[in-house]
Amino acid sequence: MTAIRLDRRRFLALGSLGAAAAVGRPAVASRRAGLASSPGVAGTGAGAGAAPGAGPVRMTGDGLGLTPAETAALWAELASDGRIERDSYSNGGAVAALEAHFAEVLGKERAVFLPTGTLANHLAVRTLAGGTGRAIVQAESHLFNDSGDCVQTLSGITLMPLAPGRAGFRLDEVQDVIARTAGGRVSRPVAVISIETPVRRRYGETFDQGEVDRITAFAKREGIGLHLDGARIFLQSAATGWSVADYARPFDTVYVSLYKYFNSVSGAILAGPRALLDELYHVRRMFGAGLPGAWPFAALARHYAPGFTDRFRQALAASESFIEQIGRHEAFEVERIPAGTNLFTLRVAAADGAAFRARLGRRGIRLGAPRGFRRGDSDGGGPGHVRFLVAVNETWNRTSADALAGAFIGALRA
Question: What is the pTM of this model?
Fold first, then answer.
């Protein structure tokens, strides 16, 4: 049992990077078990992969992909260190500490914990609209496609989708909709504009910042509320060098996911002005979301949030080196996502994609299944090739770019 517990602690220390230099404090597991506080680096040989004991390099998803056992071990470590304080119906305790952290980082007066991003986006639009009017959204947005028409059904606010097949809309498209709305026989003006960036349905493509600036300036002049669906905005910040506060500044409210890359089991943060959010816990409870105890979610996100952008920027740098190295090999071809963040396409000259993945798996690298992820592309990459959608996340920091490139080249051979 002792050996198993130490392995879990090592995983948690390395998985969160446990890096005092990057985070400003050592990981809990590092302090208690006396383990190294920096991620292991694998060798550079063709057969090398993830560093021994560091856990796999996951090339799917935005986060660490903690197992239930690893999550439970971290909860136990945080609790034994006195870093979890119980909340009461999602107020106070660990939840209040999490809210204070994100309010500061996002540059907003107030932040509120919510159990899902669907509810965070819904309540943001509902609150900004004041219970009436219409909301402009992207046709490719999560709010329009993946939220069960919650805003329309539960709050009576009509969503007006723009720019199908594109990451973002333009100011002139917004102005056209507002002009048409103003000319209707029954007044139903646009009250809110919601912008998602990066856009999940566009594989992490970002909304053009120039258009964001023009649209938000126009909305402020017209008295239209502004919401940022920034579920993955910290990924965008790491990719561009802009701070999340800079991205959030023009918007009244901003939503950030807690489970995608802050490794919580679930949860979301909605941040904005006190005048809008101070009493939101009443609405939260009305929607059945005043969880009696939210500390398990809050404690995990609060643990992984400090220093995340720096750590993710390190992972992106490793991916750039990896891409440059395998790009010199005739068996690999990389396709970038336009204005992307942490996803790219990798075409591999391999007759058997499943066997290629299995060989990488034995080297501690978890690659997703071959896929034709663009519309109309069902062959997984074309004759003689397989195509993979590759995600960069913190697990890339568990090894070196040289080791990853060597592992991919080595996995070409049966």
Answer: 0.86
The whole-chain average pLDDT of the chain stands at 86
Q: What average pLDDT does this structure show over 350-377?
A: 82
Residue extents of the structural domains in the chain:
39-62+308-410, 80-304
d(CA 94, CA 97): 5
Q: How far is CA 136 from CA 173, 200, 373, in A?
A: 10, 18, 27
Question: CA angle 1-73-20, nearest 5°?
Answer: 115
**DSSP one-letter code for 149:** T
Residue 28 has pLDDT above 60, yes or no: no
225 has a pLDDT exceeding 50: yes
Measured distance CA(19)–CA(120) in Å, rounded = 31
Whether the pLDDT of residue 376 is over 80: the answer is: no
- Angle ∠(365,199,295) on CA atoms, nearest 5: 70
Q: Does 80-304 match 39-62+308-410 at the fold level?
A: no
Distance, C-alpha 269 to centroid of its chain: 12
Report the range of poorest mean pLDDT among 44-58, 148-162, 231-245.
44-58
Task: Provide the pairing of β-strand 134-138 with 190-196.
Answer: parallel
Q: List the single range of 67-81, 121-135, 170-184 with lowest mean pLDDT.
A: 170-184
Task: Kindly state the helix (H) or strand (E) to which residue 255 belongs, with its residue range.
Answer: strand 253-257
Domain 39-62+308-410 has CATH 3.90.1150.10: yes
Residue 193: both structure tokens together: 């504009």
Nearest to 269 by CA among 259, 278, 256: 256
Quickly state the pLDDT bin for 371 (edges 50, 70, 90).
Answer: confident
Write down the CATH number for the domain with range 80-304. 3.40.640.10
Higher pLDDT, 200 or 133: 200
Q: What are phi and psi of 199, to 5 degrees?
A: -100, 115
8 Å CB contact between 384 and 73: no
Cβ-based neighbours of 177, under 8 Å, separated by 6 or more: 136, 160, 162, 190
Asked if residues 210 and 163 have their Cβ atoms less than 8 Å apart, the reply is: no
